[in-house]
């Protein structure tokens, strides 16, 4: 499979690239800066996205909202819309997006990000990623998208290949913890790329 990976140098993107290549897939990495031998492009530019996506079987978006103190939803949604436009122009239907955990439900109709003890420092980022999910649901019905939310805590760790998949609800273990290593998240994401079991919906992955 030929995969275009937007945001290839980040914590999650770099691990997705490594996992996909280890399975024999061809990965074209894209970043805004061109680091680590990646192509340089702005995801909000649909023409640039179309040029890069042409000839690929799937696109993975590991774009993170800006963390420079600015309002993050505008730039993130512009990037998602640019990416959607580029995929349509290039004739590529498959899109897998690295999502956030904030939009997961902790109770029916109650999102994690709306919980009173949700860390304020992450709130705007979580809301931006929640809006990206709603954008996919509203505007990407012609594409084969999947949005993958991690557990509440995701960080570098061990690749075990052992995890659980869920839908719109937070997954917790027997101790009430919600965790996934970035390595195992990458395994789940590449599994979905290969198997397409969750087209046009959100899933979540946790240990």
From TrEMBL:
UniProt protein name: NADH-flavin reductase
Domain NAD(P)-binding positions: 7-195
Highest taxon of the lineage: Bacteria
InterPro entries per the UniProt record, alphabetical: NAD(P)-bd_dom (IPR016040), NAD(P)-bd_dom_sf (IPR036291), Polyketide_Oxido-like (IPR051606)
């Amino acid at each position: 499979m030929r995969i275009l990976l937007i945001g290839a140098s980040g914590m999650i993107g770099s691990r997705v690239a490594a996992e996909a290549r280890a399975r024999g897939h061809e990965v074209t990495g894209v970043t805004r800066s061109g680091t680590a031998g990646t192509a340089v492009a702005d995801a909000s530019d649909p023409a640039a996205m179309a040029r890069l996506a042409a000839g690929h079987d799937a696109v993975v978006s590991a774009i993170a909202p800006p963390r420079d103190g600015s309002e993050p939803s505008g730039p993130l949604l512009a990037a998602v819309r640019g990416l959607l436009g580029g995929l349509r122009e290039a004739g590529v239907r498959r899109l897998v997006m690295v999502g956030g955990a904030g939009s997961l439900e902790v109770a029916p109709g109650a999102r994690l990000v709306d919980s009173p003890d949700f860390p304020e420092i992450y709130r705007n980022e979580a809301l931006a990623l929640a809006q990206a999910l709603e954008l996919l649901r509203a505007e990407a019905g012609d594409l084969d998208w999947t949005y993958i939310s991690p557990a509440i805590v995701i960080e570098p760790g061990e690749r075990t290949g052992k995890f659980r998949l869920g839908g719109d609800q937070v997954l917790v273990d027997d101790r009430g913890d919600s965790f996934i290593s970035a390595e195992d998240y990458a395994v789940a994401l590449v599994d979905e790329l290969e198997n397409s079991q969750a087209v046009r919906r959100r899933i979540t992955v946790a240990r």
